[in-house]
Each structure stands twice: as structure tokens, then as C-alpha cells.
Specification:
With 118 residues, this protein is α+β, with helices and mostly antiparallel strands. 67% of the residues lie in helices and 13% in strands.
Length: 118
């Protein structure tokens, strides 16, 4: 019997660690909204994301996009245009967040209605 409890506890620790790992990557005020912006449109220019994500500064967006690139969630492409255009899209790994974004959107809509009534 003790073995089953220990197994259960070990599994729970693994689950909590997995959530912590995910939150380490997605943590902060801006990462989920940035991913959502790119997720909705497929490809976004820097200026488009600034317009989508209310309140974010250029400097903060740049920093967050770099972190998302490091974590292989976002791909940055420099287009050969005049002036040069930079475009962002989710990587294959980043696309695995689509379900989470969809679920967060649905939950956020219901939560807003419940709390604010709108």
C-alpha cells in the first residue's frame, strides 16, 4: 500500500514540476498576449504586435520576443524589403500552444462575464 502512495506522490511532483517549467517559459504579463497575437494571424510584424498588445512598449516587446525565440516558440524572419520588415511566426513547437491559447480565451471570456458582467 505504501508503494502506491509513494508512486502517486512522485507523479504529482512530476506534474507540478511540468507546470512550473511551462510557467517559467510563459511567465509574465506579456508572453501569452504576444503568442496570442501571432497565433491569431499566423504571421505578424513587430508593429502589428505592438498594436495588438495593449500597453506594451517597443523595448519590452523586443525583450519578450527574444526570450520566446530562445525558447523556440517564435521564429523571427527579416524580409528583404525597403525599409526592412521583421516578421514573427510561431515555430512548430510554438504551435503546440494553440490549444492552450484557445482554452485560455474561452475561460477568460466566461470569467469576464462572471466577474464584470460583460
Amino acid at each position: 500500500m505504501g508503494c502506491k502512495i509513494e508512486e502517486f506522490q512522485q507523479e504529482q511532483k512530476k506534474r507540478i514540476r511540468a507546470v512550473q517549467d511551462a510557467m517559467d517559459v510563459l511567465n509574465g504579463k506579456w508572453k501569452i498576449p504576444i503568442i496570442s497575437s501571432i497565433c491569431c494571424y499566423g504571421k505578424r510584424r513587430f508593429s502589428d504586435i505592438v498594436n495588438d498588445v495593449e500597453g506594451i512598449s517597443n523595448r519590452m516587446l523586443s525583450k519578450e520576443l527574444k526570450e520566446l525565440e530562445i525558447n523556440q516558440l517564435v521564429k523571427r524572419t527579416v524580409l528583404d524589403t525597403q525599409p526592412i520588415t521583421v516578421q514573427y511566426e510561431l515555430t512548430e513547437h510554438g504551435n503546440t500552444l494553440q490549444t492552450i491559447i484557445t482554452n485560455l480565451t474561452a475561460w477568460g471570456t466566461v470569467h469576464r462575464r462572471k466577474i464584470v458582467g460583460k
